[in-house]
Amino acid sequence: MSSPQVLLLIDASPTSRAALTSAARLARQQHGELIALFVEDQDLHASAGHPFTREISALSGESRPFDRETLLTRLAQQRHQIETMLTELDRDAPLRWRLDVVTGPVFESVRAAAQTADWVVMGKTGWSAGHGARLGSVARRLLESGCRRLLLWQATTESEMKPAPRFGRSTARSVGRATPALSSPMAADRRAPIVALLTSPQTAETVVLAAHAIAVATERPCHLFMRSGIDPATLPSLVAWRQEGEPPLVLELIDARSAEMAAPPDPSLLRTLQETRASVVVLAADAGTVTGRPLAELIAEIHVPVILVPSATP
């Protein structure tokens, strides 16, 4: 049986650098292989072949020549930066990884590579991060293509998923309507937990599995928001999680009225996600329907990294 594969769409952008740390940590936790995919956009190659092509600086607005030699030099510099970053991963802990460099259309290249990956990791915004975009074009197209693989969107370098400091156990207590599965160090740990939204019985198990994997990989507590109509006892991974007691878990029932099949979408769920402290938000692909928002817009409105799990098992 082959080991899990974590596919990382990588370049030299700030969000890609941040996503690399998260992807490496996830690959180690899954005892899998990290595959860094660097796509040299064929459209850039074609554009650089024309003598009249010029590029405009996003900072100064100045126009300058953009020839093939400039492009090749820049791509070589990016590959060198990426190789350096990958080599430095072994300083933390041993990791199996490889760098795949392909020339072609970016979206099609990523989608083809994602067919055999267990996780797909990429920046939400890539190079557009500094210009107000909240969801990059490749991320949006992957989202809209119905890609059935699990996707992790890393938002910013500030949200890099690092292990939380360890604290001793405290006495278990109830928090509002939430029921802790065990004693939780959340009060002592000021860093935000993993937050997951369980929207339907069909996707709940997959969401719990993803949330657990990230919680283990980042050594963070987890807060699960579960809509009524979902029976926790029918979710094997949740039952096992509560029995094992690690990582710390809080399960909270929400949205009792809109759980009925005939109920309209509930936009208040988006407010719940936006107002809850989170390091990462885990969603199923049906979350857009539940909240009454197109899925791409929903993800763009969540200002922390987002993990999207499929509505159906691949």
Automatic annotation (TrEMBL):
Name of the featured protein: UspA domain-containing protein
CDD domains named among the record's database cross-references: USP-like
Signal peptide start and end residues: none
UspA domain mapped to chain residues: 6-144
Region called Disordered, residue ranges: 163-183
Source organism of this protein record: Guyparkeria halophila
